[in-house]
Write the C-alpha coordinates for this entry.
Amino acid sequence: MYKEKILNLLRSASSGYISGEEFARKCGISRTMVWKHIKSLEREGFGIEAVPSQGYKLTTIPDILRQSDIKPGLKTRVMGKAIHLLSEVASTNTLAMELAARGTPEGTVVIAETQTGGKGRLGRKWISPKGNLYLSVVLRPNVPMHKAPLLTLMGAVAVASAIRTTCGLAAGIKWPNDILVSGKKVSGLLTEMSAEQDRIRHIVLGIGVDVNMEMLELPPEVRSLTTTLAAEAGAKINRTTLLQQLLRDLESWYQRFLTNDADILEAWKQLNLTVGNRITVSGVGETLAGLAQGVDKEGRLIVRLDDATMRTVAAGDVTIVKE
Ligand code: BTN
Protein backbone atom coordinates (compact mmCIF):
# COMPACT_ATOMS: atom_id res chain seq x y z
CA MET A 1 0.00 0.00 0.00
CA TYR A 2 2.76 2.49 0.93
CA LYS A 3 4.79 1.33 -2.03
CA GLU A 4 1.88 2.18 -4.35
CA LYS A 5 1.49 5.56 -2.68
CA ILE A 6 5.19 6.29 -3.14
CA LEU A 7 4.96 5.23 -6.77
CA ASN A 8 1.94 7.48 -7.33
CA LEU A 9 3.80 10.41 -5.75
CA LEU A 10 6.82 9.74 -7.96
CA ARG A 11 4.60 9.56 -11.03
CA SER A 12 2.80 12.81 -10.29
CA ALA A 13 5.94 14.78 -9.39
CA SER A 14 6.00 17.06 -12.40
CA SER A 15 8.79 19.23 -11.04
CA GLY A 16 11.19 16.32 -10.57
CA TYR A 17 12.52 15.36 -7.17
CA ILE A 18 10.64 14.49 -4.00
CA SER A 19 12.62 14.31 -0.80
CA GLY A 20 12.60 11.30 1.50
CA GLU A 21 11.19 13.58 4.18
CA GLU A 22 8.23 14.57 1.99
CA PHE A 23 7.42 10.93 1.21
CA ALA A 24 7.67 10.09 4.90
CA ARG A 25 5.32 12.94 5.84
CA LYS A 26 2.76 12.22 3.11
CA CYS A 27 2.70 8.47 3.82
CA GLY A 28 3.05 8.68 7.59
CA ILE A 29 6.05 6.31 7.67
CA SER A 30 9.75 6.63 8.53
CA ARG A 31 12.41 7.65 6.01
CA THR A 32 13.99 4.22 6.39
CA MET A 33 10.70 2.64 5.32
CA VAL A 34 10.53 5.05 2.37
CA TRP A 35 14.01 3.93 1.32
CA LYS A 36 13.01 0.26 1.58
CA HIS A 37 9.99 0.80 -0.67
CA ILE A 38 12.12 2.74 -3.17
CA LYS A 39 14.56 -0.21 -3.29
CA SER A 40 11.67 -2.61 -3.79
CA LEU A 41 10.35 -0.51 -6.73
CA GLU A 42 13.85 -0.56 -8.22
CA ARG A 43 13.89 -4.35 -7.95
CA GLU A 44 10.61 -4.39 -9.93
CA GLY A 45 12.39 -2.49 -12.70
CA PHE A 46 11.49 1.15 -12.01
CA GLY A 47 14.37 3.52 -12.67
CA ILE A 48 14.65 5.89 -9.70
CA GLU A 49 17.35 8.51 -9.50
CA ALA A 50 18.43 9.52 -5.99
CA VAL A 51 20.21 12.87 -5.58
CA PRO A 52 21.50 13.86 -2.14
CA SER A 53 19.73 16.89 -0.68
CA GLN A 54 17.11 16.84 -3.50
CA GLY A 55 15.42 13.48 -3.25
CA TYR A 56 14.09 10.88 -5.65
CA LYS A 57 12.91 11.10 -9.25
CA LEU A 58 11.26 8.51 -11.49
CA THR A 59 13.34 8.08 -14.66
CA THR A 60 11.98 4.91 -16.31
CA ILE A 61 8.87 2.77 -15.99
CA PRO A 62 9.24 -0.95 -16.70
CA ASP A 63 6.99 -2.69 -19.21
CA ILE A 64 5.40 -4.98 -16.63
CA LEU A 65 1.77 -5.61 -15.81
CA ARG A 66 0.77 -4.72 -12.25
CA GLN A 67 -2.53 -5.39 -10.48
CA SER A 68 -2.49 -1.88 -9.05
CA ASP A 69 -2.35 -0.37 -12.57
CA ILE A 70 -4.89 -2.71 -14.15
CA LYS A 71 -7.67 -2.64 -11.57
CA PRO A 72 -8.36 1.10 -11.02
CA GLY A 73 -9.19 2.06 -14.62
CA LEU A 74 -10.98 -1.16 -15.48
CA LYS A 75 -14.60 -0.37 -14.56
CA THR A 76 -16.01 -3.76 -15.56
CA ARG A 77 -18.70 -5.66 -13.69
CA VAL A 78 -17.60 -9.23 -14.45
CA MET A 79 -14.42 -9.42 -16.53
CA GLY A 80 -11.34 -9.19 -14.36
CA LYS A 81 -13.11 -9.05 -11.00
CA ALA A 82 -10.51 -11.61 -9.94
CA ILE A 83 -7.16 -11.35 -11.67
CA HIS A 84 -4.36 -13.89 -11.21
CA LEU A 85 -1.25 -12.15 -12.50
CA LEU A 86 1.87 -14.33 -12.79
CA SER A 87 5.35 -13.68 -14.07
CA GLU A 88 5.52 -17.19 -15.57
CA VAL A 89 3.19 -20.14 -16.00
CA ALA A 90 3.04 -23.21 -18.21
CA SER A 91 -0.21 -22.11 -19.84
CA THR A 92 -2.76 -19.55 -18.64
CA ASN A 93 -5.46 -21.72 -20.24
CA THR A 94 -4.45 -24.80 -18.24
CA LEU A 95 -4.41 -22.83 -14.99
CA ALA A 96 -7.73 -21.13 -15.78
CA MET A 97 -9.32 -24.53 -16.53
CA GLU A 98 -8.08 -25.80 -13.15
CA LEU A 99 -9.43 -22.73 -11.35
CA ALA A 100 -12.74 -23.04 -13.21
CA ALA A 101 -13.07 -26.69 -12.18
CA ARG A 102 -12.56 -25.57 -8.56
CA GLY A 103 -15.40 -23.05 -8.87
CA THR A 104 -13.70 -19.72 -9.58
CA PRO A 105 -16.32 -17.12 -10.56
CA GLU A 106 -17.15 -16.11 -14.09
CA GLY A 107 -14.89 -13.35 -15.34
CA THR A 108 -11.79 -14.62 -13.52
CA VAL A 109 -8.73 -13.76 -15.59
CA VAL A 110 -5.33 -15.48 -15.54
CA ILE A 111 -2.53 -13.38 -17.02
CA ALA A 112 1.16 -14.21 -17.37
CA GLU A 113 4.20 -12.29 -18.57
CA THR A 114 5.55 -15.48 -20.19
CA GLN A 115 4.35 -19.04 -20.76
CA THR A 116 6.65 -22.04 -20.85
CA GLY A 117 4.05 -24.33 -22.44
CA GLY A 118 1.72 -21.95 -24.28
CA LYS A 119 -0.87 -23.83 -26.32
CA GLY A 120 -2.06 -22.91 -29.81
CA ARG A 121 -4.89 -24.25 -31.95
CA LEU A 122 -4.69 -27.69 -33.58
CA GLY A 123 -2.22 -28.95 -30.97
CA ARG A 124 0.46 -26.41 -31.79
CA LYS A 125 2.72 -24.51 -29.38
CA TRP A 126 2.24 -20.82 -28.74
CA ILE A 127 5.69 -19.29 -28.28
CA SER A 128 5.30 -16.82 -25.43
CA PRO A 129 8.24 -14.45 -24.85
CA LYS A 130 8.00 -11.38 -22.60
CA GLY A 131 6.41 -8.18 -23.88
CA ASN A 132 3.09 -9.60 -25.12
CA LEU A 133 -0.30 -10.38 -23.60
CA TYR A 134 -1.22 -13.92 -22.57
CA LEU A 135 -4.54 -14.24 -20.81
CA SER A 136 -7.37 -16.65 -20.20
CA VAL A 137 -10.87 -15.71 -19.13
CA VAL A 138 -13.30 -18.07 -17.37
CA LEU A 139 -16.87 -17.94 -18.70
CA ARG A 140 -19.93 -19.79 -17.48
CA PRO A 141 -22.60 -19.18 -20.11
CA ASN A 142 -25.88 -21.02 -19.64
CA VAL A 143 -26.12 -22.10 -23.27
CA PRO A 144 -26.00 -25.40 -25.18
CA MET A 145 -22.67 -26.77 -26.33
CA HIS A 146 -23.15 -26.02 -30.01
CA LYS A 147 -22.94 -22.31 -29.17
CA ALA A 148 -19.30 -22.65 -28.07
CA PRO A 149 -17.73 -21.76 -31.47
CA LEU A 150 -19.71 -18.51 -31.42
CA LEU A 151 -18.02 -17.63 -28.14
CA THR A 152 -14.63 -17.92 -29.83
CA LEU A 153 -15.86 -15.61 -32.59
CA MET A 154 -17.10 -13.28 -29.84
CA GLY A 155 -13.60 -13.27 -28.35
CA ALA A 156 -12.08 -12.47 -31.74
CA VAL A 157 -14.48 -9.56 -32.21
CA ALA A 158 -13.53 -8.20 -28.78
CA VAL A 159 -9.78 -8.53 -29.47
CA ALA A 160 -10.03 -6.85 -32.89
CA SER A 161 -12.15 -4.03 -31.41
CA ALA A 162 -9.73 -3.46 -28.53
CA ILE A 163 -6.76 -3.31 -30.93
CA ARG A 164 -8.62 -0.84 -33.15
CA THR A 165 -9.53 1.39 -30.19
CA THR A 166 -6.21 1.27 -28.36
CA CYS A 167 -3.70 1.17 -31.21
CA GLY A 168 -5.67 2.73 -34.07
CA LEU A 169 -4.77 -0.22 -36.31
CA ALA A 170 -7.16 -1.79 -38.84
CA ALA A 171 -7.32 -5.22 -37.20
CA GLY A 172 -9.45 -7.83 -38.99
CA ILE A 173 -10.35 -11.48 -38.41
CA LYS A 174 -9.26 -14.49 -40.46
CA TRP A 175 -11.65 -17.39 -39.82
CA PRO A 176 -12.12 -18.58 -37.24
CA ASN A 177 -10.23 -16.37 -34.85
CA ASP A 178 -6.84 -15.17 -36.04
CA ILE A 179 -6.49 -11.43 -35.72
CA LEU A 180 -4.50 -9.92 -38.57
CA VAL A 181 -3.04 -6.48 -39.15
CA SER A 182 -1.63 -5.74 -42.63
CA GLY A 183 -2.15 -9.39 -43.58
CA LYS A 184 -0.05 -10.73 -40.69
CA LYS A 185 -1.14 -12.44 -37.49
CA VAL A 186 -1.02 -10.42 -34.25
CA SER A 187 -3.31 -12.51 -32.09
CA GLY A 188 -4.86 -15.95 -31.74
CA LEU A 189 -7.54 -17.44 -29.53
CA LEU A 190 -7.84 -20.92 -28.06
CA THR A 191 -11.07 -21.98 -26.39
CA GLU A 192 -11.21 -24.92 -23.99
CA MET A 193 -14.42 -26.23 -22.55
CA SER A 194 -15.85 -28.51 -19.90
CA ALA A 195 -19.39 -29.71 -20.55
CA GLU A 196 -21.97 -32.10 -19.17
CA GLN A 197 -24.57 -33.64 -21.46
CA ASP A 198 -25.35 -30.76 -23.80
CA ARG A 199 -24.63 -27.86 -21.43
CA ILE A 200 -21.42 -25.90 -21.09
CA ARG A 201 -20.09 -26.17 -17.53
CA HIS A 202 -17.35 -23.64 -18.10
CA ILE A 203 -15.35 -22.36 -20.97
CA VAL A 204 -11.91 -20.76 -20.99
CA LEU A 205 -11.16 -18.18 -23.63
CA GLY A 206 -7.40 -18.02 -24.10
CA ILE A 207 -6.00 -14.99 -25.89
CA GLY A 208 -2.45 -14.34 -27.03
CA VAL A 209 -1.60 -10.93 -28.48
CA ASP A 210 1.81 -10.12 -29.93
CA VAL A 211 2.32 -6.62 -28.57
CA ASN A 212 5.88 -5.48 -27.91
CA MET A 213 8.08 -8.59 -28.26
CA GLU A 214 11.18 -8.63 -30.42
CA MET A 215 10.39 -10.52 -33.63
CA LEU A 216 13.67 -12.41 -33.28
CA GLU A 217 12.12 -14.22 -30.31
CA LEU A 218 10.00 -16.21 -32.77
CA PRO A 219 11.24 -19.21 -34.77
CA PRO A 220 12.09 -18.17 -38.37
CA GLU A 221 9.30 -20.25 -39.93
CA VAL A 222 6.54 -18.21 -38.22
CA ARG A 223 8.29 -14.82 -38.36
CA SER A 224 7.20 -13.96 -41.89
CA LEU A 225 3.53 -14.63 -41.08
CA THR A 226 3.50 -12.72 -37.81
CA THR A 227 3.76 -9.14 -36.70
CA THR A 228 3.45 -7.19 -33.45
CA LEU A 229 1.22 -4.26 -32.61
CA ALA A 230 4.32 -2.19 -31.80
CA ALA A 231 5.86 -2.91 -35.22
CA GLU A 232 2.61 -1.95 -36.96
CA ALA A 233 1.99 1.16 -34.87
CA GLY A 234 5.64 2.24 -34.99
CA ALA A 235 5.80 2.66 -31.20
CA LYS A 236 5.60 0.54 -28.06
CA ILE A 237 2.06 -0.16 -26.92
CA ASN A 238 0.94 0.31 -23.32
CA ARG A 239 -0.10 -3.25 -22.48
CA THR A 240 -2.09 -2.20 -19.43
CA THR A 241 -4.29 0.12 -21.50
CA LEU A 242 -4.76 -2.58 -24.15
CA LEU A 243 -5.61 -5.20 -21.54
CA GLN A 244 -8.15 -2.93 -19.83
CA GLN A 245 -9.83 -2.12 -23.16
CA LEU A 246 -9.86 -5.82 -24.06
CA LEU A 247 -11.58 -6.75 -20.80
CA ARG A 248 -14.15 -3.96 -21.32
CA ASP A 249 -14.81 -5.11 -24.90
CA LEU A 250 -15.07 -8.74 -23.77
CA GLU A 251 -17.61 -7.70 -21.18
CA SER A 252 -19.84 -5.86 -23.62
CA TRP A 253 -19.59 -8.46 -26.42
CA TYR A 254 -20.21 -11.30 -23.97
CA GLN A 255 -23.40 -9.55 -22.82
CA ARG A 256 -24.50 -9.31 -26.43
CA PHE A 257 -23.69 -12.99 -26.95
CA LEU A 258 -25.96 -13.85 -24.01
CA THR A 259 -28.82 -11.61 -25.09
CA ASN A 260 -28.71 -11.86 -28.90
CA ASP A 261 -25.98 -13.99 -30.37
CA ALA A 262 -26.90 -12.99 -33.94
CA ASP A 263 -25.14 -9.68 -33.13
CA ILE A 264 -21.86 -11.55 -32.77
CA LEU A 265 -22.03 -12.99 -36.28
CA GLU A 266 -22.90 -9.58 -37.68
CA ALA A 267 -19.95 -7.95 -35.91
CA TRP A 268 -17.65 -10.81 -36.95
CA LYS A 269 -18.73 -10.37 -40.60
CA GLN A 270 -17.89 -6.65 -40.45
CA LEU A 271 -14.35 -7.53 -39.33
CA ASN A 272 -13.98 -10.63 -41.49
CA LEU A 273 -11.05 -10.99 -43.91
CA THR A 274 -11.92 -14.49 -45.15
CA VAL A 275 -15.38 -14.57 -46.71
CA GLY A 276 -15.37 -13.60 -50.38
CA ASN A 277 -11.78 -14.77 -50.92
CA ARG A 278 -10.30 -17.84 -52.52
CA ILE A 279 -8.85 -19.94 -49.72
CA THR A 280 -7.30 -23.23 -48.79
CA VAL A 281 -8.23 -24.93 -45.52
CA SER A 282 -5.74 -27.35 -43.99
CA GLY A 283 -4.81 -28.82 -40.63
CA VAL A 284 -7.70 -31.28 -40.27
CA GLY A 285 -6.62 -34.21 -42.38
CA GLU A 286 -7.42 -33.04 -45.90
CA THR A 287 -6.73 -29.76 -47.66
CA LEU A 288 -9.68 -28.03 -49.28
CA ALA A 289 -9.51 -25.33 -51.92
CA GLY A 290 -12.34 -23.06 -52.96
CA LEU A 291 -14.21 -19.88 -52.31
CA ALA A 292 -15.05 -18.86 -48.73
CA GLN A 293 -18.77 -18.29 -49.17
CA GLY A 294 -19.90 -17.40 -45.67
CA VAL A 295 -20.31 -18.57 -42.09
CA ASP A 296 -23.35 -20.42 -40.80
CA LYS A 297 -25.34 -19.59 -37.64
CA GLU A 298 -22.91 -21.57 -35.53
CA GLY A 299 -19.83 -19.88 -36.88
CA ARG A 300 -18.69 -22.69 -39.20
CA LEU A 301 -17.09 -21.72 -42.50
CA ILE A 302 -18.99 -22.49 -45.71
CA VAL A 303 -16.66 -23.24 -48.61
CA ARG A 304 -17.66 -23.62 -52.25
CA LEU A 305 -15.14 -26.10 -53.62
CA ASP A 306 -13.82 -25.86 -57.17
CA ASP A 307 -16.16 -28.68 -58.32
CA ALA A 308 -19.09 -26.52 -57.03
CA THR A 309 -19.86 -28.74 -54.03
CA MET A 310 -20.43 -27.00 -50.73
CA ARG A 311 -18.54 -27.93 -47.54
CA THR A 312 -19.02 -26.69 -44.00
CA VAL A 313 -15.84 -26.63 -41.92
CA ALA A 314 -15.76 -26.49 -38.13
CA ALA A 315 -11.97 -26.22 -37.64
CA GLY A 316 -8.84 -25.72 -39.66
CA ASP A 317 -6.20 -23.35 -40.85
CA VAL A 318 -7.21 -20.93 -43.57
CA THR A 319 -4.78 -19.48 -46.08
CA ILE A 320 -6.13 -16.64 -48.18
CA VAL A 321 -5.02 -17.16 -51.77
CA LYS A 322 -3.82 -13.92 -53.36
CA GLU A 323 -5.23 -13.67 -56.90
C1 BTN B 1 -3.72 -19.96 -32.02
O1 BTN B 1 -3.16 -21.00 -32.32
O2 BTN B 1 -3.85 -19.04 -32.83
C2 BTN B 1 -4.27 -19.76 -30.62
C3 BTN B 1 -3.25 -19.23 -29.69
C4 BTN B 1 -3.77 -19.00 -28.29
C5 BTN B 1 -2.67 -18.58 -27.35
C6 BTN B 1 -3.18 -18.16 -26.01
S1 BTN B 1 -1.94 -17.35 -25.06
C7 BTN B 1 -2.97 -17.41 -23.67
C8 BTN B 1 -3.67 -18.74 -23.66
N1 BTN B 1 -2.86 -19.76 -23.01
C9 BTN B 1 -2.46 -20.70 -23.86
O3 BTN B 1 -1.74 -21.67 -23.54
N2 BTN B 1 -2.91 -20.44 -25.09
C10 BTN B 1 -3.73 -19.25 -25.11
Remarks:
- The chain has a mean pLDDT of 93.
- Residues 240 and 314 are 34 Å apart (CA to CA).
- The longest strand covers residues 184-196.
